[in-house]
Amino acid sequence: MVRLNKNGGPKNPEKVDRLCASVWTSSLEGRTFQNKTHILPFAGRMLLNDSKKGPAHVQYRRPYGCAVLAMSDVLQTISELKEEKDFVLKVYTCNNENEWYQVHDNIIRNGNCLSPGLIISLQLLRGDMELVRRENPLIFTKGVAITRKLGFPDVIMPGDVRNDLYLTLERGDFERGGKSVQKNIEVTMGEGDSSGPCFPEYRSFVLYHNNSPRWSEAVKLPIPIDRFRGSHLRFEFRHCSTKDKGEKKLFGFAFTPLMREDGTTLSDDSHELYVYKCDENTTFSNHALYLGLPCCKEDVSSCPSIPSSLVFQRSSKETFWISTQLSSTKLTQNVDLLALLKWKAHPERVMDILGRLRHVSGEEIVKFLQDILDTLFSILDDNTEKYGPLVFQSLVFIINLLRDSKYYHFRPVMDTYIQKHFAGALAYRELIRCLKWYMDRSAEVVRQDHIQEAMRALEYLFKFIVQSRILYSRATCGMEEEQFRTSIQELFQSNVVISPVFLSVFLSFSFLSLPPFPPPAPLQDTSVQEEVEMMVESLLDVLLQTLLSIMSKSQSQEAVRGQRCPQCTGEYVSCLLSLLRQMTDAHFQHLIENFHSKEELKEFLLKILCVFRNLMKLSIFPRDWNVMRLLTKQTSLMGPASACLCAQVWNSYFSLAVLYINQPSLQLENLSPAKKKKVLDRYGDMRVIMTFQLFSMWQNLGENKIHFIPGMIGPFLGVTLVPQVELRNIMIPIFHDMMDWEQRKNGNFKQVEAELIDKLDSLVSEGKGDENYRELFGLLLLEKIEQETWRETGTSFVTSVTRLMERLLDYRDCMKGDETENKKIGCTVNLLNFYKSEINKEEMYIRYIHKLCDMHLQAENFTEAAFTLLLYWELLHWEERPLKDFLHYPAQSQWHRKESLCRRVIHYFNKGKCWEFGIPLCRELAFQYESQYDYQSLSWIRKMEAAYYDNIMEQQRLEPEFFRVGFYGRKFPFFLRNKEFVCRGHDYERLEAFQQRMLGEFPQAIAMQHPNQPDEATLQCDAQYLQIYAVTPVPDSVGVLQMERVPDRIKSFYRVNNVRRFRYDRPFHKGLKDRENEFKSLWIERTTLILSHPLPGISRWFEVEQRELVEVSPLENATSVVENKNQELRTLISQYQHKQLHGNINLLSMTLNGVIDAAVNGGIARYQEAFFDKDYITSHPEDTEKITQLKDLMQEQVHILGLGLAVHEKLVHPEMRPLHKKLIDQFQMMRNSLCHVSLHELKEELPSLF
C-alpha cells in the first residue's frame, strides 16, 4: 500500500522504490498472455474533498484511481530483453463511483487522468518455478508473492498440488435503516474456525452513500486443505460515518460454509447469501448461534424449522452476492468423484461407485488424474476377482478420454504417472486377463462397442502392463518371467483385427530381445533370426496392404483439404520402419525366395514400391518431426534390390528413386548451415547414396536399357539438375549411355535428342539448373563422346544443348526478376530464333511465339505482336487437315485456324497503324473467301481493306527515330553480351529520352561518351557499358520515294518501315583543317549497319549482322546535303500546294528562310568557294562529273525556292508581308551569287565537256 498526498504523489518518496513485487506464472505458448493488468492505488480519507472534518485515526479504503497496462503491447519488448524494463501507467479516476466495478472497461472512454501515473518494472523469466528460483536467487529474497494463473494450467502434472480459493465480493442490496441518506457500507471478511483464523480479516473499499454497492473485488484465500471441513466464511457489514466519533457501526452479517455435509466444496458459481440483522455490540465468538441458520436459499431445505426467538433474524429485504472459484487438485465439488476417492469409507458401494465414474466430467477427471488412478489400482489390489473387470473398464474409459482432442495434451501426464508414480506391481496379471477376455470375444459379440473401446486403449493398457511387470521383476528379481511371456504370446494369438497400436505393441515386445538397430552385422542368434523371419512372414504383407488402403483414401483428402494423413497412418508406418530396419540381406533374400511364382513376386514388389512412393508424397508425420521424416528416408534406402524382373517393376523402382532424391526434406541447400551439418553428420547426404543405387541398378539392366529410352530421360534429367556436384557427376554420364544404346539400335539418337530438349525446357523454367550445371553437362558428355565413332554428331548435339541451356537460363532469370519488358522480349526472341534455326523444334517454337506475342500486347507493341503471330500463320496451310487442341486453340481444321490467326494479325496491324502490312493479308483472306463463295465474309474483308486505304490517306502517323545500342562487357546477359542492335523508338522519343530509358533498364551500366568501337579490354571486363547514338534509316523501296505524284503520307511510311539498313555519319577532317573554309577538308565516315531482320518485326530491336564503312569526300558530302535539302523542300511545298497543310504557314516560312539565309551567308556560297574554285578544279580532274552534278543541284534548288516563294506569296498573311519581302530580296542575292559562276567560265576550266 502506498500513501498518497493530496497532489497525488507519495507521502514518503524515499520509501517508494521496490514497495512490492510479484512473480506471475503463466504459459506464453499458443495463447495470449493476460491482456491487461489493473493496478489500483487506494488509501485516503472518507470524504472526496480531503476535508479536515472527522477523526483522523479512522481509515477507510476508498476508490481513488485505476491504472491499466496492456500486456500485449509490452510482451514483445520484454521477451527480447534479459533485464528489467520500466513502464509508465497513467492513473485514471471514475467520475461516478457507482460504475467503479466496471472502471476497467470504461477507463479509456470516459476516465480522467489524474497524474503521470505509476512506474512498474517488468522482466520475463523463462522456465519452471524451480529453475527460475535457482537462476534468480536475489529476486526471491525480497518477499516476492507468487501469483499463479487463475484456474488450472493446460496440463496438471502428477505431484503438482494446489489448493487456492478465489472469492469475489460482487454486490449487495441494503435498507436505508431510517437514515435520511444512504449508507457508506464496508464489508469485513473473516474465517470462522475453532482453530482460529488462517488469514487476516479483509476489508472492502467503501462507496459513498450507496445502499446497492457493487465492489467486484477478487480475493485469494490461502486456506489449508485440512481446514476446509468445518470452516466457514463470515461477512460483516458496517456503516462508516464521519459523525458519531467516526466509528464503524455493525448492522448485519452473512456467512457460508466452505464444505457441504456430503464432503463436496462450495461450487464454482455466484451465491446469493442471506443477510442477518445485528447491532454494533454483537460478538461472534459462539459460532453455533448462527451456523444452524440457512446461509442461502438452497440451504433452507436442509435446515429444520427456525424459531422466531433466535438471536439473529434474517433481513428479508437485504441480500449479498459473492462468487467463488476453487483451484484445487485435492478437493472436489463432484459427489461421484468424491465417493470414488473416499471409497474406503463405504466399501460396500464400490461397484456402484465405479459404475458412476463415467458420469464425472472430463475436466474433473484430468484435474484429479493421479488420485483417480491411484484409487483404481488400490481397489484392484483390494479384491482382484471382484473388482477387476470394473477397474479395467474404468481404466479404458479414462484412457479413451485422453484421446479426445480437448484432453489430448494430458497424455504426457499419463506417461509421467506411469513412469514415476504408478505402483501397481501386480496389476499386469488382471490387465492381461481382462484384455485377453475382450480379444477372445471380438469375433463373437454382436455389439462390440466395449471391445472397440478396449482396442483403442491398447497403447496405454500395454504401458501399464509393461511398467507393472517391471515393478514386479524388480521386487522379485525376475520371478515368473516365463509365465509372463506365455501370457503375452497367448494374448497376441487372440482373434482380433490388427490395429496400428496392436502392431506397434507386438513389435516392441518382439524386439525386446533384439539388438539396437540398424544391425551392424548379420544377426548371429538363430532364435532372433527366426523371430524376425516370423514377423516378416506374418506382418509385412498385412502392413503393406493396410497402408495402401489408408493412403489411397488420404491422397484424395489431402488434395481436397491439404491435411495430413490420419494419425494411425504414422503408427502403421512406424511399425513398417521398425520391421524393415531389423531385416538383413538374408531376410530379404529369404523373403523373395518364398514366393511361388514371378507374378507373386512382382505384385509384392509393386506393392512395397507403391507404399514407399506414398511415403515420399504424403505428409505422414508433422512438418516439424524432422528426425522421424529423415528416419523414414533412411529406411527407404534399405529396400530389397530385385533381380531382373519385368519393365513395370523397373519403372516403378526408377520413379521411386527419382522421387526420393527430389524430396523437399532432403534438399540440404535449403537448410541453415547448422542444421545442414547436423543432418550430414548423422545421416549423410542420402540423395548421393540413392544416386549410387540408381546408377548401379541402371548398369544392371544391360541390353534392356533400350526399353527405358526415352521414358526415363525426363526423370533422370530432373535428378541431374539437383544442385549437388557428386550427384551430377554420377548421373550425367547416363545420358551418354542412352545415346550410345539408341545409336546401336537405330543408327541415331533422335529420341534422346528430342526428349532431352523437351524436358530441359520445362525443368529449367521451373527454376532448376544453373550455370555450373551447364558447364559440367558439356564437359562430362563431350569427354565421353570423344571416344565414340559417332562423336561428330554427338558433339554437335551436346553443343546445341549447352547453348540452349544458356538461353533458357537467361530467359528464366529475366522472367523471374523485376526485369523490364524490353529485356524479357529480347530474351524470348533470342530463344525463339534458336528453336527455329538450330534445333527445329516446331512445338516449342510455336509456344514461344505466343509467349512473345503476349508480352508485346502487354507492352502495347501491336505491330510487333502482329509480326510475331504471323510466324505461326506462315507455318499453316489453307487446307482442311484437322488439328488437335493446342494452347488456347480448340480442335479445328488448319484452314479455320489460319483464318482466325489472319484476322488477329490484321487487327493488331490496324492497332499499330501499319495498314500497309495488313492490306496484303486482307487480299489473301479475300481470295480464300471468294474461292469458298463466302460473300458475306468477302464483303466484310473488302470493306476493311478500303478502310485501311482511307486511314493511310487521312490519319496522321509519326515517323519513329532509330537508335543504335551497343552492349559491352561480360555482365550483360548472354543474348546481349558484346553485341550491337538497332532499336525502333517509341512515338515522340528522342535520343536523350531513349538514353535515359536504357540506363534505367540497366542501372549498373556506364554510358560511353564516344561512337568509336570498343577495345578488347572493354569487351572482356566484368562491367556493363552502353554505347548509344541515333541512326538514319536507308529505305529499300526507293522507287516509290522517287515518284513525284505519290503523296508524302504514303512515302513517309516507306522511309521508316521494312528497313534493314541504317546509316550513321561521323564528320572528320582529313589532313590539316582549312581554316578559311572547313568544307574543303570536311570528310564523312559513313557506317552502314545491316540488321538480321528488317524493322519493324517480331521485336523493336534487331542485332546488327553486318557493318559497312566508307569515307565520303567533301564534294560528295556537299552533293548529298544539297540533294537531301532539295527533296525536303519539294515535299513541303507540294503539301502546301495540294492543301495537305493548311492554315498556319509558319513551317514553310521558317524552312524557306533557313535555306535562303544560309545560302546568302554561308551554305551554298561556301560550297561555291570550296569546289568551284579554279585551283580545286585543276587539282581534282577526277571530280569533274561530281562538280557538274553539284552545280545542277544548286540550280535546281534555286528553281524549287522560286516555286516555294510563289506559294508563300499566295498564302502569306498581310502582317507577314515584310518577312516575305525580305525573303524575295535575299533570294535575288542568292541567285546572283550562283550566276557569278557563269557557263563560260566553266567552259574554260572544263573544255572536255563542251
Molecular structure report:
The chain is built from 46 helices and 25 strands. The radius of gyration is 50 Å and the shape is elongated. The model is unreliable at 27-51, 496-501, 503-524, 558-564, 624-630, 633-644 and 1238-1250 (pLDDT under 50). It has 1250 residues and is an alpha+beta fold. The longest helix is centred in the middle third of the chain and has 36 residues, at 526-561.
Topology:
Blueprint (H helix, E strand, L loop, with lengths): L21 E3 L11 E4 L3 E2 L15 E2 L4 E5 H9 L5 E9 L9 H8 L1 E11 L6 H7 L9 E3 L15 E11 L11 E8 L9 E2 L10 E8 L10 E9 L7 E10 L12 E8 L10 H4 L22 E15 L6 H7 L8 H6 L6 H6 L1 H14 L1 H18 L9 H11 L5 H14 L8 H8 L1 H19 L4 H12 L7 H11 L15 H36 L5 H16 L2 H9 L4 H20 L8 H11 L10 H15 L11 H11 L2 H15 L12 H8 L4 H7 L1 H14 L3 H16 L5 H15 L5 H26 L4 H19 L2 H17 L3 H14 L6 E2 L8 E2 H18 L3 H17 L3 H20 L7 E7 L10 E6 L6 H11 L4 E2 L8 H5 L4 E10 L3 H5 L5 H9 L2 E11 L12 E14 L5 E12 L1 H24 L8 H16 L2 H8 L2 H6 L4 H28 L5 H19 L3 H7 L5
Parallel strand pairs: 1-8, 21-22
Antiparallel strand pairs: 2-5, 3-4, 5-6, 6-7, 9-12, 9-16, 10-11, 10-13, 13-14, 14-15, 15-16, 17-18, 19-20, 19-22, 20-25, 22-23, 23-24, 24-25
Helix pairs in contact: 8-9, 9-12, 10-13, 11-13, 11-14, 15-17, 16-17, 16-19, 19-21, 21-23, 21-24, 23-25, 24-25, 24-27, 26-27, 27-29, 28-29, 29-30, 30-31, 31-32, 32-33, 33-34, 34-35, 40-41, 40-44, 41-44, 41-45, 44-45
